[in-house]
Amino acid sequence: MFLWDLRNTWTDLVIINGRARHPQTQGLVERGNRTLEVALGKWMQHNKTDEWSKGLRPVVYSINTSVAEATNKTPYKVVFGQSPRSDFEMWKIISESGISDEENLPGDFIDIFDE
Protein backbone atom coordinates (compact mmCIF):
# COMPACT_ATOMS: atom_id res chain seq x y z
CA MET A 1 0.00 0.00 0.00
CA PHE A 2 2.83 2.39 0.85
CA LEU A 3 4.52 1.92 -2.53
CA TRP A 4 1.19 2.38 -4.28
CA ASP A 5 0.72 5.70 -2.46
CA LEU A 6 4.20 6.79 -3.52
CA ARG A 7 3.45 5.83 -7.11
CA ASN A 8 0.24 7.90 -7.03
CA THR A 9 2.05 10.88 -5.49
CA TRP A 10 5.04 10.80 -7.84
CA THR A 11 3.76 9.68 -11.21
CA ASP A 12 7.28 9.63 -12.70
CA LEU A 13 8.52 7.26 -9.98
CA VAL A 14 10.06 4.06 -11.30
CA ILE A 15 10.52 1.18 -8.86
CA ILE A 16 13.05 -1.40 -9.99
CA ASN A 17 13.31 -4.77 -8.32
CA GLY A 18 16.07 -7.07 -9.37
CA ARG A 19 19.53 -8.38 -8.85
CA ALA A 20 22.90 -6.86 -9.42
CA ARG A 21 23.85 -6.96 -13.11
CA HIS A 22 27.23 -8.57 -12.48
CA PRO A 23 27.79 -11.77 -10.48
CA GLN A 24 30.81 -10.12 -8.83
CA THR A 25 28.56 -7.36 -7.49
CA GLN A 26 26.08 -9.91 -6.20
CA GLY A 27 28.96 -11.64 -4.40
CA LEU A 28 29.92 -8.39 -2.69
CA VAL A 29 26.32 -7.88 -1.58
CA GLU A 30 26.18 -11.43 -0.22
CA ARG A 31 29.49 -10.96 1.61
CA GLY A 32 28.20 -7.74 3.17
CA ASN A 33 25.00 -9.48 4.20
CA ARG A 34 27.00 -12.32 5.75
CA THR A 35 29.17 -9.86 7.69
CA LEU A 36 26.06 -8.18 9.06
CA GLU A 37 24.42 -11.53 9.86
CA VAL A 38 27.44 -12.81 11.80
CA ALA A 39 27.95 -9.54 13.71
CA LEU A 40 24.25 -9.32 14.57
CA GLY A 41 24.28 -12.95 15.74
CA LYS A 42 27.21 -12.21 18.06
CA TRP A 43 25.41 -9.13 19.39
CA MET A 44 22.27 -11.18 20.08
CA GLN A 45 24.28 -13.88 21.87
CA HIS A 46 26.17 -11.33 23.95
CA ASN A 47 22.95 -9.52 24.92
CA LYS A 48 20.99 -12.78 25.40
CA THR A 49 18.13 -11.66 23.16
CA ASP A 50 16.44 -12.69 19.95
CA GLU A 51 15.31 -9.13 19.16
CA TRP A 52 17.75 -8.56 16.30
CA SER A 53 16.19 -5.21 15.37
CA LYS A 54 17.44 -3.69 18.64
CA GLY A 55 20.99 -4.60 17.73
CA LEU A 56 20.88 -3.35 14.17
CA ARG A 57 21.93 0.22 14.91
CA PRO A 58 24.95 -0.54 17.14
CA VAL A 59 26.08 -3.42 14.90
CA VAL A 60 25.92 -1.36 11.70
CA TYR A 61 27.69 1.50 13.47
CA SER A 62 30.39 -0.91 14.61
CA ILE A 63 30.85 -2.31 11.10
CA ASN A 64 30.94 1.16 9.54
CA THR A 65 33.53 2.44 12.02
CA SER A 66 35.89 -0.56 12.01
CA VAL A 67 39.12 -0.11 10.04
CA ALA A 68 39.29 -2.37 6.98
CA GLU A 69 42.64 -4.04 6.29
CA ALA A 70 42.45 -3.45 2.52
CA THR A 71 41.96 0.32 2.72
CA ASN A 72 43.27 1.03 6.22
CA LYS A 73 40.15 3.20 6.58
CA THR A 74 36.67 2.72 7.97
CA PRO A 75 33.84 2.08 5.48
CA TYR A 76 32.25 5.32 6.69
CA LYS A 77 35.36 7.32 5.86
CA VAL A 78 35.68 5.66 2.44
CA VAL A 79 32.10 6.62 1.54
CA PHE A 80 31.81 10.05 3.18
CA GLY A 81 35.45 11.18 3.37
CA GLN A 82 35.27 11.91 7.10
CA SER A 83 34.75 10.17 10.40
CA PRO A 84 31.19 9.99 11.74
CA ARG A 85 30.16 13.03 13.72
CA SER A 86 28.40 11.11 16.45
CA ASP A 87 29.98 10.29 19.76
CA PHE A 88 29.79 6.71 21.02
CA GLU A 89 29.78 7.77 24.67
CA MET A 90 26.82 10.06 24.07
CA TRP A 91 24.87 7.24 22.38
CA LYS A 92 25.84 4.85 25.17
CA ILE A 93 24.42 7.26 27.79
CA ILE A 94 21.25 7.71 25.74
CA SER A 95 20.85 3.95 25.28
CA GLU A 96 21.49 3.10 28.94
CA SER A 97 19.02 5.79 30.03
CA GLY A 98 16.29 4.25 27.88
CA ILE A 99 15.79 7.48 25.94
CA SER A 100 14.11 6.75 22.61
CA ASP A 101 13.16 10.25 21.46
CA GLU A 102 14.85 13.65 21.70
CA GLU A 103 11.71 14.93 23.40
CA ASN A 104 12.64 12.67 26.34
CA LEU A 105 16.13 14.12 26.81
CA PRO A 106 16.50 15.58 30.29
CA GLY A 107 17.06 19.33 30.47
CA ASP A 108 20.50 18.78 31.98
CA PHE A 109 21.58 16.24 29.35
CA ILE A 110 24.71 18.19 28.41
CA ASP A 111 25.74 18.30 32.08
CA ILE A 112 25.16 14.55 32.40
CA PHE A 113 27.21 13.96 29.25
CA ASP A 114 30.09 16.11 30.53
CA GLU A 115 30.36 14.21 33.83
Could you characterize the architecture of this molecule?
It is a single chain. With 115 residues, the chain is mostly helical. It has a domain of 72 residues. Helix 2 crosses helix 3. The longest helix is centred in the first third of the chain and has 24 residues. GO terms for molecular function: nucleic acid binding. This is Integrase catalytic domain-containing protein.
List the helices and strands and how they pair.
Layout: H1 2-9, H2 23-46, H3 52-64, H4 75-80, H5 88-96, H6 109-114
Helix pairs in contact: 2-3
Helix content: 55-70%
Shape, principal axes of CA atoms? extended
Q: Tally of extended strands?
A: 0
Low-confidence stretches: none
Percent of residues in β-strands = under 5%
> From the alpha-carbon coordinates, what is the Rg to the nearest angstrom?
19 Å
| N-to-C order of helices and strands | HHHHHH
> Which structural class do you get from the secondary structure elements?
mainly alpha
- Main β-sheet, in a few words? none
How far the N terminus sits from the C terminus, by CA atoms, comes to 48 Å
Mean pLDDT: 82
Number of helices: 6
GO molecular function, one term: nucleic acid binding
Protein name: Integrase catalytic domain-containing protein
Organism: Rotaria magnacalcarata
InterPro entries: Integrase_cat-core, RNaseH-like_sf, RNaseH_sf
Give me some keywords for this one.
115 residues, extended
Could you give a quick summary of the protein structure above?
This protein is mostly helical. Helix content is 57%, strand content 0%.
